[in-house]
Amino acid sequence: MRKLIALFMLAGIMFVPVFANAQDAPADTAATEEVTPAPEPAASPTIVDDEIVAEEQSFHQVIKEKFIEGDPLYMTPVLICLILGLAIALERIISLNLATTNTKKLILKVEDALSTGGIEAAKDITRNTKGPVASIFTQGLMRYSEGIEMVEKSIIAYGSVEMGRLEKGLVWISLFISLAPMLGFMGTVIGMIAAFDAIEAAGDISPSLVAGGIKIALLTTVAGLIVAIILQLFYNYLVSKIDSLVNDMEDASISLVDVLVKHKLTGK
After folding, report:
1. In whole angstroms, what is the distance from residue 242 CA to residue 224 CA?
2. Which of 18, 138, 212, 227 could pair covalently with 126 via S-S, beta carbons 3.0-4.6 A apart?
3. What is the pTM of this model?
4. Which of 182, 183, 171 is nearest to 74 (CA)?
5. DSSP letter string over the chain?
6. Rounded to whole angstroms, how far apart are CA atoms 257 and 143?
7. C-alpha gyration radius of the chain
8. Domain ranges of the chain
9. Predicted confidence (pLDDT) per residue in 149-163, tens digit
10. What is the pLDDT of residue 141?
11. Tens digit of pLDDT for each residue in 42-53?
12. What is the pLDDT of residue 233?
């Protein structure tokens, strides 16, 4: 019985505040509607939206703001260096990847063609294969009738030509790597000159006078260094790719000469 009474008392204690709040809620709502003016509820979402916009500012917008703050007159040449350098680098990457050939597979095809159809069959294989290695093979096979020594000389000479083609465009990337920091430093010097001119004209040193020139100087320098770093990464990748292709060309050329010597000795 005591437990039952205690449960009723506990239930009453829990539900009395709920009923009191339910009864007071309409009165509070009415009082709030009478006292609170209409424009105030619309004020808080506006502040929240501004804060959200400030927090969700994209990377693209930040770069755009810094570009404008750094003065487009000095930032535009640096941007042009980046665009042209990346365009040449991407073109070179695509070309070098297309120039990559499975040299071991090509050697086996040439050897089988020599065994079955002779030099002309081997020429057809190399002519229908893309890449500098196949081009070198074609030049070597064309001189087969003049002897192995002429084949070697032809391979070496044409290998130099193909190597020059692989390195095409690297000089321009190297130019932009050097030019971008120079343009950035030029903006730095011009910005500092503008800052000192402002100090001289005002006859007083104050942060507001020199801040603009120093900001231009720092932003143009940073932009030039970033462009040089990005292009340097692409340049090093291209150099390593070219070195790999040249090594493949040299190994494949030695293998071709061995195959031709073997073919000549067997007389097939």
Report:
1. 27
2. 138
3. 0.68
4. 183
5. -HHHHHHHHHHHHHHHHHHHHHHHHHHHHHHHHHHS-TTGGGHHHHHHHHHHHHHT--HHHHHHHHHHHT-HHHHHHHHHHHHHHHHHHHHHHHHHHHH---HHHHHHHHHHHHHHT-HHHHHHHHHTS-SHHHHHHHHHHHTGGG-HHHHHHHHHHHHHHHHHHHTTTHHHHHHHHHHHHHHHHHHHHHHHHHHHHHHHHHTS--HHHHHHHHHHHHHHHHHHHHHHHHHHHHHHHHHHHHHHHHHHHHHHHHHHHHHHHHHHHHT-
6. 12
7. 38
8. 169-245
9. 888 888 888 888 888
10. 86
11. 444 444 444 444
12. 95
Would you say 176 and 84 are in contact if contact means Cβ atoms under 8 Å apart? yes
Cα torsion angle, 183, 184, 189, 194, sign = positive
Pair 75, 216: CB distance under 8 Å = no
Q: Which pair of structure tokens corresponds to residue 128?
A: 């229908």
With vertex at residue 227, the alpha carbon angle to CA 222 and CA 228, rounded to the nearest 5 degrees, is 100
Residue that the structure tokens 């195959």 belong to: 259
Give the residue with greater pLDDT, 232 vs 116.
Answer: 232
- Amino acid in the structure at residue 127: R
Average pLDDT of the segment spanning 199-213: 67
Q: Contact at 8 Å (CB) between 176 and 231?
A: yes
For residues 241 and 239, what is the distance between their CA atoms, to the nearest angstrom?
5
- How far apart CA 199 and CA 191 sit, in angstroms, is 13
Supply 131's token pair.
């890449």
